[in-house]
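Supplementary Text 2. Reproducibility record for the structural model of the 781-residue chain.

All settings were left at their defaults, and a single model was retained for analysis rather than an ensemble. We include the record here because the model underlies the residue-level annotations in Supplementary Table 4.
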Amino acid sequence: MSVRMKAAAIAVGLVAASAAVPSPAFGIEDDRGYAALIRRASYGVPHITAGNFASLGFGVGYVQAEDNICVIAEKVVTANGERSRWFGTAGPADADVRSDLFHRKAIDDRVAERLLEGRRDGVQSPSDDVRDQIRGFVAGYNHFLRRTGVQRLTDPACRGKAWVRPLTETDLWRTSWASMVRAGSRAVLDGIVAAAPPAAAGAGATPDAAAVVAALNGASAGIGSNAYGLGAQATTNGGGMVLANPHFPWQGPERFYRMHLKVPGRYDVEGAALIGDPIIEIGHNRTLAWSHTVSTARRFVWHRLSLVPGDPTSYYVDGRPEKMHARTVTVRTGSGAISRTFYDTRYGPVAVVPGTFDWTPATAYAITDVNATNNRAFDGWLRMGQAKDVHQLKAVLDRYQFLPWVNVIAADARGEALYGDHSVVPRVTHEVADACIPAPFQPLYASSGQAVLDGSRPDCALGRDPDAAVPGILGPANLPVRFRDDYVTNSNDSHWLASPAAPLEGFPRILGNERAQRSLRTRLGLDQIQQRLAGTDGLPGKGFTTARLWHVMFGNRVHGAELVRDDLVALCRRQPTATASNGAAVDLTAACAALARFDLRVDLDSRGAHLFTEFALAGGIRFADTFDVTDPVRTPRRLNTEDARVRTALADAVQRLAGIPLDAEWGDIHTDSRGERRIPIHGGRGEAGVFNVITNPLVPGMGYPQVVHGSSFVMAVELGPHGPSGRQILTYSQSANPNSPWYADQTRLYSRKGWDTVKYTEAQITADPNLRTYRVVQRGR
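Retained model, structure tokens:
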């Protein structure tokens, strides 16, 4: 068949439609085509209805390509190990090269293809519904690209670029796998790439892997979250309510995308997903709402290998030598090619962290990433969206055990709330830890949850819990879950204080610490709820409405300053000169005055917020009192004015802010750039005790011009007898394309603490004055 004839055989089109309630017969119900109804509401948010999951995926792929095709295309380049080919390289130590080698190894190992093998039950391998969604997403993306053409894309980031091409289903399974292992093997990929036998040439330093080893828990760097699940005792209407507040990057592939997806009678969910994913990951249906926060649990374990003398690529298991599998991987770069040999064991790849996990003639270390075989996530989120209450949600979590590195916080219309660190966690029970972690590594496990198991003993393999969905992970009985009718919450500390009235204790250390000091952000999150329930926060009445929840979310309190500012001002007034870290004497007089006038918030008109922020980042919040396990929300709380490091941190902050007035308004210097426009941004650093986290690096002499991370999709949703209602916003807006009408509109809305309303029911959707409706159709393949 000629190209022209083939093109004629595929009828593709955009068909205008009315804004009326869609007919249930609009979809194409066979496998020869796709059709979806798109209703774009305010801020470009698509409400997509289709007759089956393939057509639903088609609609999602189409609209996400309309808004973010460059983000998706670059995400695929990464997962295919082609960054250094298309974006240039500085040599073997370049981050793009390391990333490419890691992903090319996964491709050579046929990781994505093997994820699709087995019974299609959503546990052994993805279900037909999910496969249909992926197939449809690919078709929808390709439909848009074919109609528009690479040369006519409006986003300059990828217009006319050779790396923009039609997708395959394998591309999406590869990007999904990369997301699953983000907190596991991908977090230490430089250590995997660098691993080489003694006397062989390694690939240099391993800063990312070293940071993972140094971290006090397993939370992924660069992302975080807050969430509340409010039950009947905490809300004014007696139904459930959820606050979703994930803290994710404002640029790149981990941006969220708002959408509402519906297959009549089968699936009806509003919320958000990471760009490039076909299913809602945080959101609500008619009677259930949920969010996720990054968990402290570790996602991989180390295995210490005892090597065969004279052969550093063989190791003993049960006294018998076993050969490592060596695989050489080659990636194309802008100037040629780079190769690297990887070494795999029965436990997984060998990895190195110089000074901690070295490959010596006697010892090497391999890691087991339990998310490397996690092919259950899309099915889990699909079934989560079909659950009617928190108990049905718990049943979904038990069956699929799919959450790769996040907690779940949920509430339902009956007024019951749920917290669970029901994520994928290596099976290191108390018994395994006691028997299989060698004595030199017991302190590491106790302090950080990192397990180093004896790889020479087959009985120290991860094994299987009887109730676990798959081998190697903790089963539901070993995971912390709590149902409450008042509230549950998490702000990236461990499970322990999700409900202060009923702490979760006695769980394996690999999940996180217990009976230990909480972060300032966790403490503020709990304090905000407790004050609201007591009616002592200055808002009307007691308990939560969505309006009050929104006000609390964006109250922008700086809890560190609430605790120590007065003592800090008194200290610097007593001793108005301090020595900075570089030895210079610094006059603190102006700093004292600015801090005294600071309103203890990071609102746009707050003055002195930047000074306290830099003081906190310099390590100045040092307490004189100790943590009290019987009063975990309010201890410690007194500044240690005798610690010389406090005054040094203030002097360092003054130096860092040279050229910026110490009493400048936060909104004048704390912004996000959109083209030539700088949009004032409220919120601030979690290290200072801010709940509404915004991470915006300081540019000396200028301020904070570009947000890199922080509050992203924010949702305050209330569940009641008439359906869901509430407020939501995507802080960085729906599209990364500077030529899109939805590039900065929600960012401007966020700047003034505005919101978009929840639009779930037909009445809510059709009431939107900006509604624009069209169909996307493709007949034949």
